[in-house]
Amino acid sequence: MRDVAIVAFSQTDHVRRSEEVSEVEMLMPVLHDVLERTGLRTGDIGFTCSGSCDYLAGRAFSFTMALDGVGAWPPIPESHVEMDGAWALYEAWVKLLTGEADTALVYAYGKSSPGSVRDVLTRQLDPYYLAPLWPDSVALAALQAQALIDAGETDEPALAAIAARSRTAAEGNPHAQLRGPRPQGGYVVRPLRTGDCPPVGDGAAAVVLAAGDRARELCPRPAWIRGMDHRVEPHALGVRDLTDSPSTRLAAERAGAFARPVDTAELHAPFTSQEVVLRKALRLGGSVTVNPSGGPLAANPVMAAGLIRVGEAAAAVHRGASDRALAHATSGPCLQQNLVAVLEGEPHVR
Amino acid sequence: MSATPASGAPSAPEVLRAPLVVEFPFTRSVGPVQSAFLTGLRERTVLGVRTTGGRVLVPPVEYDPDTSEEIGELVEVGTAGTVTTWAWNPEPRRGQPLETPFAWVLVRLDGADTGLLHALDAPGPEAVRTGMRVRVRWAAERGGSITDIACFEPYADGDAGRGEGADPCRGEGADPCRDEVADARSDAGRAERRAEPVTPGAAERGTAAGPRPHSGAFDDPVTGVVAPARLDYTYTPGRAQTRFINALAGRRTTGERCPSCRKVYVPPRGACPTCGIATSEQVEVGPRGTVTTFCIVNIKAKNLDIDVPYVYAHIALDGADLPLHGRIAGIPYDRVRMGLRVEPVWTQGGRHPDHYRPTGEPDADYDTYRELL
């Protein structure tokens, strides 16, 4: 099996609303930027894959409009997942592993501003038992948070500390939507306060993947994907132990995360309480730098935030800030689906 | 590095916006297990399914989440249960079970091994805790859906569901469980409770003796659910389409030219799909154009104020490198043809051409539009 690496990453500045631009207008600068970093042109890309969600825009097949930004004529090999772009990256990785392509462009975008993302996300729930009750994303995360508090795994001050640490870290991230600490605020759905919840916003991200020597040509220090896996929990929340994430642990195991310690972890935990679950599932000790970008508590463009975790981890490897990084992405309520990637840089060559 | 920010361009024109409502009655069929469960709710009976490992799943599913085995052994569980986790919802949103502040709860009904998500009507967060006893409050009108459970309500009796006759909530008149929380409830909530009094001896079933076998057979079983969904959006078209719509207001049709391949796109979407780069140069096109291809519509769409049959066509406006869509009128439908020269017809107050009609010019030569098919 050949080696595949992330060779470039780009993202928008994430903002509360981006009304003046369409999805493709928001996305295009990111696509151009990520290609410029590698010197590739759209026609050079072997496979293109994207992640987005029609329900955010309220329009069927909205992702086809975004394809205008990648130069889809003459025809290109292309695919789309109605999920976070991290899963598009997984598909592209597999495509490169099979040898069907040497390079891939992966992008994801989400504009939450046209609608109410709390309501929109209820439509991804089981349509028989859950969706008719309209339980919103904050409510479901709050059930998980209370379960953690009841189990003695966290408390409100500990959650507040996660929020503060994340947003303080985001001060160094020019793309983040919330930079710097802010008040925890009142309860949105108790026990989760405003500070425990991610900002609602719009944004996009893109990465370029390349295999083998192609990766070395395109990037001075490629972020080699040592393993990647994704797993899912039962859909019904009442069947799961909400204080744990066996799917994350299994995905990490299969991705090789436990073979050697990582120095950096980018976790897709939109709610503070979910970081508690993920740290446990991933056995992250105190020596691991978690979400130096600020994580989704600082910017959470839905459908792109998971891809951004992988991109941020790769960028840390690119610039030599990390030698072995873990990236995690999630989708669905209460960490329903989880993807784990392990990225490594080769030793610095002087 | 920094890509261009997603917002903040100071020269951006005033943002056009319009409400966009997506509303859909999702109609779904249900299999045997869900049919039994939903029909059971209509009959004020809660059914679960037993896995081959012996666990009782409520609400029931047709496949074991652990083994993916097909399962279908139905059992009846209690209508009272225990809260396994909860979250206080101070501001209920549209569509949620209660309009007054309530707790979301996962409830493990007596005899079940898993939690059912629903709302708990309680006066405040101080009245809710994990481990508390609750019971189903049935909706007054039930049709076989999860909302046949109006919500849960606190159930003060520690012996709830553990034996007939040991339940003070079942007494007529004196109802300590209800009085406990009644003051903080809304009038709507009270009305709901009045509409569906607890039936002594029937409200809290299922016992410490465990779940009881149930055939799942009911008269007139539920075979499907209709789940109405409505989402409200504010549509904003972005820069390129804003320029296009603003030009249309002056009855001008504009395209945008790709700086690389020089093609003119109408309507512009901001990017050249061939080159993958932004289009920027605005070009006025038309008003006349050529029908490149067409179809004859014979079935009238709902709420459409146009008689059938009519012709829907691709029209390459003069100067454009991509045809746009439009309706052809002013000519019998069976006389429309490829190459027909047409022009837009605007109606009073219309914000876009209502349709296109023949100009009377000779038809365009095929070679002039063959690249646009």
UniProtKB/TrEMBL annotation, chain A:
<protein>
    <submittedName>
        <fullName>Lipid-transfer protein</fullName>
    </submittedName>
</protein>
<dbReference type="InterPro" id="IPR002155">
    <property type="entry name" value="Thiolase"/>
</dbReference>
<dbReference type="GO" id="GO:0016747">
    <property type="term" value="F:acyltransferase activity, transferring groups other than amino-acyl groups"/>
</dbReference>
<dbReference type="InterPro" id="IPR016039">
    <property type="entry name" value="Thiolase-like"/>
</dbReference>
TrEMBL record, chain B:
<feature type="domain" description="ChsH2 C-terminal OB-fold">
    <location>
        <begin position="283"/>
        <end position="346"/>
    </location>
</feature>
<dbReference type="InterPro" id="IPR002878">
    <property type="entry name" value="ChsH2_C"/>
</dbReference>
<dbReference type="InterPro" id="IPR022002">
    <property type="entry name" value="ChsH2_Znr"/>
</dbReference>
<dbReference type="Pfam" id="PF01796">
    <property type="entry name" value="OB_ChsH2_C"/>
</dbReference>
<dbReference type="Pfam" id="PF12172">
    <property type="entry name" value="zf-ChsH2"/>
</dbReference>
<dbReference type="InterPro" id="IPR052513">
    <property type="entry name" value="Thioester_dehydratase-like"/>
</dbReference>
<dbReference type="GO" id="GO:0003677">
    <property type="term" value="F:DNA binding"/>
</dbReference>
<keyword id="KW-0238">DNA-binding</keyword>
<feature type="region of interest" description="Disordered">
    <location>
        <begin position="161"/>
        <end position="221"/>
    </location>
</feature>
<feature type="domain" description="ChsH2 C-terminal OB-fold">
    <location>
        <begin position="75"/>
        <end position="138"/>
    </location>
</feature>
<protein>
    <submittedName>
        <fullName>DNA-binding protein</fullName>
    </submittedName>
</protein>
<feature type="compositionally biased region" description="Basic and acidic residues">
    <location>
        <begin position="161"/>
        <end position="196"/>
    </location>
</feature>
<dbReference type="InterPro" id="IPR012340">
    <property type="entry name" value="NA-bd_OB-fold"/>
</dbReference>
<feature type="domain" description="ChsH2 rubredoxin-like zinc ribbon">
    <location>
        <begin position="251"/>
        <end position="276"/>
    </location>
</feature>
